[in-house]
Amino acid sequence: MDTLYIVVPCYNEEEVLAETSKQLLAKITELMNSGKISEKSRIVFVNDGSKDSTWEIIESLHNENHIFQGISLTRNKGHQNALLAGLMTVKDHCDMTISLDADLQDDIDAMDKMIDKYYNGCEIVYGVRNARNSDTVFKRKTAGSYYKIMKFMGADIVSESADYRLMSKKALEGLAEFKEVNLFLRGVVPMIGYKSDVVYYARKERFAGKSKYPLKKMLSFAWEGITSLSVKPIQIITILGGAIFLISIIMLIYSVIRHIIGATSIGWTSLIVSIWAIGGLQLLAIGVIGEYIGKVYLETKSRPKYIIEKYLGDE
Ligand code: UDP
Ligand code: MG
After folding, report:
1. Which numbered atom of ligand 1 lies nearest the CA of 10?
2. What are the pLDDT digits (tens) for 194-227?
3. Strand 68-73 to strand 308-312: parallel, antiparallel, or no bridges (unpaired)?
4. Is the CB of 211 under 6 A from ligand 1?
5. Ligand 1 atom closest to 212 (CA)
6. What is the pTM of this model?
7. Can you give 255-266 as a three-state secondary structure string?
8. Minimal-distance CA residue to ligand 1 atom 19
9. What is the pLDDT of residues 136-146, one digit of tens each?
10. DSSP string of 267-300?
11. Going by C-beta distance under 8 Å and a sequence separation of 6 or more, which residues neighbour residue 39?
12. Average pLDDT of the chain to the nearest whole number
């Protein structure tokens, strides 16, 4: 029987932790009793530099029952890094991990199927939402187009899969080999390879607390995803630049002909329009290239993605 560690990143989640821990405890006990996982299985909460009493709650859960463990980061590093910190900390103690959000929007009953697929030889099992009825129309639409754009940009991500997934120890060891600082888990996990599968579930509503992903964070998350996975934006700029260059040659020939036939009083409009158009495009191009240079800069610095302040684990 294999050991499962459930990893839950938490940022200001004091409102949900009591209920979440109760439900997860019930689930893990049920899995233990049905003989699917070993008695050494654990639930690990990663405190991502919360400003409320999240860490105190995690500590008291751990003191009550050592099935709960806690990892505290020195400061807020974002969902992806918090999750990675949790996975990398537990990978030597377990055979498989399941990661999920603290708000239990992802149906925890899908875990059974994930574990079955693990025993059938899958190293990674993605949780995929087949219904998003609980999310707002806006969130559904933005998320939908996001996955389309990502695919177009050449990133091989599993549509409608969030960070609810099972990863085996082998897969985690593969993940540990990705040394990049700009880590986008959803894009990197499919790159690990191995046999994988998906499990479908219905996404529920956040039962308490607010989403930690306001539009601004969502946009930056999307942009992060694209620029850390693909160089397609630079290619698009190159193509655009080429097209504009072609147009300018046509314009040149056109102007020379106009000049020869003596009709050169072409107005100010076309001139000013092209100045603005080209200027704008150049700025945009420099900006996008700058983004990538910024990424290279951060990679060469290779700053730590997170620093663990405390780990409440098994002694
Ligand atoms: N989260 C985190 N650090 C952050 C933001 C979010 O660890 O800086 C966690 C949060 O506690 C939750 C998960 O990431 O467990 C997903 O966040 P949320 O439910 O707010 O996102 P949504 O479901 O609205 O996309
Ligand atoms: Mg949520």
Report:
1. 11
2. 888 988 888 777 777 777 777 777 787 777 777 7
3. antiparallel
4. yes
5. 20
6. 0.76
7. HHHHHHCCCCCC
8. 211
9. 777 777 777 87
10. -HHHHHHHHHHHHHHHHHHHHHHHHHHHHHHHHH
11. 32
12. 84
